[in-house]
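Hello Y.,

Per our agreement to keep a running log of every chain we model this quarter, I'm adding this entry. I've kept the format consistent with earlier entries: sequence first, then predicted structure.
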Amino acid sequence: MSAPDRPRNTLSLRRPLSPTGISPTGISPTGISPTVLAVGGYVLTRVIGLAVLAIAAAATGKDGLHRLKGRWDSVWYVRVAEHGYGYEVTLPNGDVHSDLAFFPLLPALERGLSAVLPLDAATAGLVVSWTAAVAAAWGIYKCGAHFAGERAGVLLAVLWGVYPTAFVQSMAYTETLFTAFAAWSLYAVLRGRWILAGLLCAAAGLTRPTAVALIAALGITALVTLVRERRLPLRTVAGVLIAPLGWFAYIAYVGVRRHSPTAYFDVQAAWGNSIDGGVALARFIAGLPWPAALGLCAALALLGWLVALCVRQKQPLPLLVHTIGVVFVSLVGAAYFGSRPRLMMPAFGLLLPPAVALARLRTRTTPPVLAGLALASAAYGAFTLLGSGPP
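Predicted structure for the entry above:
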């Protein structure tokens, strides 16, 4: 590793585990680079998802493409892209849903792309989302390879593509854009490039409110580094100070527009997205029939087990804090329960333990496993997208 690339003042940044099946030069036995395998494998999972959706849509007489770019939150982003902020809907129960709940970067990109290309804003949203998905898979691979070796990094990227709610990665939503910024920001921290990490984090902060987890990851990593090394280079300080600027800028914008410092949180509360410490989740579980409640508790136990494995695996501190932060934020809000799995999707560190476990298997064993997961994810995605409930 050359001197400029050597990790500095970052915790553990532990040496990668020995890769399995890929040589130290970074070339697989097939002669294909791990980066191509990671990104290509990820793209293949999403192509499978889109193919299954197209087949299911044709069989049911529904418009699969419309489900990807013209429903649910996608409509709100397009409206902001085309008309700016200021739209509200009053529900029959008196609740007011404002478009100020949606962060500005995706609609800004939709507006810009539709201005220079012969695309409408909704289609531009798909282009942004799909491009960001590839960038996210690449960044996820880099983070995984840095910690656990090239093979585990490849598998981590592909596993992200077969996540149960991975169909959202093919929608005009912000998950892929945010995850791309988060993955590359975390990788920049792992390589000691703090100013770049801060800039990418600031961009993530203009994309989703979940950026608080990424901001915390950079801040806590810098703080622990200061305690351990009793010094903090100027570039680290600069990166940490830059990191929250995007998130704070939008919160301030909403505050100025509504003449209240808590306006953004009031807007979210009107959408039913206030932070209640998990009370809404507990009530939701309590209101289910006992078999469903038992199954959901088992799923939450599995989630807790995965978090424990991440800690036990001694993942690099910034990645670990980001993962736990995203999970925490997704569980303590009062949001609609069905959306929580997709809200956790940027916490790709959860997939590192299974990625490392798969990397230890024989090379010929992994393709059938991944193919089965891809088909299951695609089938679930088609069922959800063509159904009536929101993702």
